[in-house]
Specification:
Elements (H helix, E strand, L loop, with lengths): L5 H4 E4 L2 E4 L24 E3 L14 E3 H16 L5 E4 L4 H15 L1 H7 L13 E5 L15 H9 L5 E5 L4 H4 L4 E7 L2 H10 L3 H5 L3
Antiparallel strand pairs: 1-2, 3-4, 5-6, 6-8, 7-8
Helix pairs in contact: 3-4
The structure holds zinc ion (ZN).
Length: 209
């Protein structure tokens, strides 16, 4: 049904595995499955939410379906008295490249690889991910966010709006990334609720089909 099997959704080129279904809301991007350097979603819009910074930036964008869902998620939070702000959404391949290169320079490539994505391996390039934070952690992206009331609300309610917390603490080995309580990924309500109920990573969930 979801047809995300590696054999059907990837293509080997020059020793790299590229995903061939970048526009699927269930596209699986990780350290083993890359987006082409030229992939840019064709339906990016500014998410209808408040941001942690002022001024216009491509970081405010997501694909339409994800942006609409994020707007509803933030409105739901507000109704519960929870203040969320969006920090970083869409990121192009070249901008991911400069971020990773800067981290590799300051931390070494191996360490940088544990907390920053190689260009092509970032979900932010799909336009389906947003980093979210709150005043309680000064709009930072840090693991302590998971223990704040806003982080807990996000964990509890994201699935109701079609999002998953993509990089969970107990699944670091599976996802290849450290715990990121701030990074939400749109997959649609049905799948998000399923993933939450089953306690799976997106990797493990898609491997079942
Ligand atoms: Zn992120």
């Amino acid at each position: 049904m979801y047809d995300n099997a590696a054999s059907r959704t990837t293509l080997q080129k020059g020793g790299i595995t590229y995903v061939t279904n970048p526009t699927s809301p269930l596209v699986l991007v990780n350290k083993k499955r890359e987006l082409d350097s030229g992939y840019v979603p064709n339906d990016l819009v500014k998410a209808p939410v408040e941001f942690s910074f002022s001024g216009d930036s491509p970081k405010q964008q997501m694909r339409k379906v994800a942006a609409d869902a994020l707007g509803k998620l933030f409105a739901g939070a507000k109704q519960d008295g929870i203040e969320l702000k969006a920090v970083s959404g869409y990121r192009s391949y070249p901008s991911q490249q400069s971020i990773f290169n800067a981290y590799a320079k300051s931390h070494g490539e191996e360490e940088a690889n544990t907390f920053s994505a190689h260009p092509g391996q970032s979900e932010h390039q799909t336009g389906l991910a947003m980093d979210v934070s709150s005043a309680s952690v000064h709009y930072g992206l840090e693991q302590s966010y998971g223990a704040t009331k806003e982080g807990k609300w996000l964990e509890a309610h994201a699935a109701d709006y079609g999002f998953i917390i993509r990089y969970e603490k107990e699944h670091e080995d599976e996802t290849g990334y450290m715990y990121e309580p701030w990074h939400v990924r749109y997959v649609g309500v049905t799948v998000a609720k399923d993933i939450k109920k089953l306690g799976l990573t997106l990797e493990a969930y898609l491997a079942r089909f």
